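lol forgot to send this yesterday, sorry. struct tokens for the thing we talked abt
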């Protein structure tokens, strides 16, 4: 028995099958000796039939060896042997087992031994069938649970792997930016390191949760933008608009940053005529996020890269049938548009 639930199922079955008839016998004024003979002995035999099939025959011949013919022969032998034992007991204790009281009469009716033998075969077969059905049902439910756990564990491992790729990817790019500032001996270097430490604090502590407040995720995006602006002498050209209810709606952490990072990496960020445009609209049910940047023709890297591939896979795992991602890669501009059910 694999769990408490299967144990309860077994107990309920035997309570109904064995205890209820015994209670009926007590109400019919049968003595303890008659109850032991008529119900106790046969209860032990039926339990044996049930668990021989449940714990031995099915696991060994069906589940392990797939010996279906041998299994059928084995259950026939079990049924016949147990029916013989029951018939032998009926012959020995015929005055108890074979006698039946007819309603409104004190004269007992004696059942034929042959008739009892046939009934014993059918009774033994009944416990074989029930044990098989119960075994396969409980094992099927258990296997379904195991499969779900395996799928869940695989999904979680994949998410952790994707996330582990995302963080170093972001850190690598940020350190490159700070290196450029330091190489230029820019006064912005210290501010960039401080801003990066704030961002890393969010990535290490806040984003470990499965879900974070939408407001915190947007604060993180804004901090990232501020860090990127330090790269440019006159700052980056970014237009970010927030509309609707930006509050404590829950969102998967680090789901928006890859789009913003992609715009800075592959786009032109210091052209006032073509700023990076970020628009976020949210209510209690829907988040609409879009970002557009002018493409940098001198950057020959493939648009998207590791970051966007990862974020799309995370969306598939965490928001199945709850997101729409539309990417437009024109000759001059790159636009990412994401809609989430939150």
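and heres what i got for the seq, position by position
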């Amino acid at each position: 028995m694999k769990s408490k639930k299967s144990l309860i199922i077994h107990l309920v079955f035997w309570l109904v099958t064995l205890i209820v008839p015994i209670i009926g016998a007590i109400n019919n004024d049968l003595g303890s000796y008659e109850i032991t003979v008529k119900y106790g002995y046969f209860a032990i035999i039926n339990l044996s039939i049930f668990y021989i099939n449940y714990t031995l025959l099915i696991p060994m011949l069906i589940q392990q060896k797939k010996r279906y013919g041998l299994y059928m022969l084995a259950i026939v032998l079990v049924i016949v042997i147990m029916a013989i034992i029951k018939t032998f007991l009926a012959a020995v204790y015929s005055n108890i087992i074979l006698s039946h009281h007819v309603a409104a009469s004190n004269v007992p009716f004696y059942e034929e031994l042959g008739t009892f033998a046939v009934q014993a075969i059918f009774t033994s077969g009944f416990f074989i069938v029930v044990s098989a059905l119960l075994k396969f049902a409980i094992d099927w439910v258990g296997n379904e649970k195991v499969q779900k756990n395996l799928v869940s564990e695989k999904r979680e491992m994949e998410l952790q792997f994707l996330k582990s790729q995302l963080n170093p990817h972001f850190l690598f790019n940020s350190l490159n930016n700070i290196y450029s500032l330091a190489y230029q001996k820019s006064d912005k270097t210290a501010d960039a390191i401080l801003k990066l430490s704030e961002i890393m604090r969010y990535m290490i502590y806040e984003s470990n949760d499965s879900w974070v407040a939408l407001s915190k995720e947007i604060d993180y995006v804004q901090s990232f933008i501020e860090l990127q602006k330090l790269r440019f002498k006159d700052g980056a050209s970014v237009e970010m608009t927030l509309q609707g209810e930006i509050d404590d709606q829950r969102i998967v952490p680090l789901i928006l940053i890859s789009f913003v990072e992609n715009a800075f990496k592959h786009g032109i960020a210091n052209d006032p005529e073509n700023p990076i445009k970020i628009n976020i609209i949210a209510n209690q049910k829907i988040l609409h996020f879009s970002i557009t940047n002018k493409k940098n023709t001198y950057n020959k890297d493939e648009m998207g890269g590791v970051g966007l591939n990862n974020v799309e896979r995370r969306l598939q795992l965490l928001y199945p049938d709850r997101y729409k991602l539309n990417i437009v890669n024109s000759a001059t501009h790159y636009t990412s548009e994401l809609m989430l059910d939150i």
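The first strand starts at residue 99 and ends at 101. anyway ping me if u want another try
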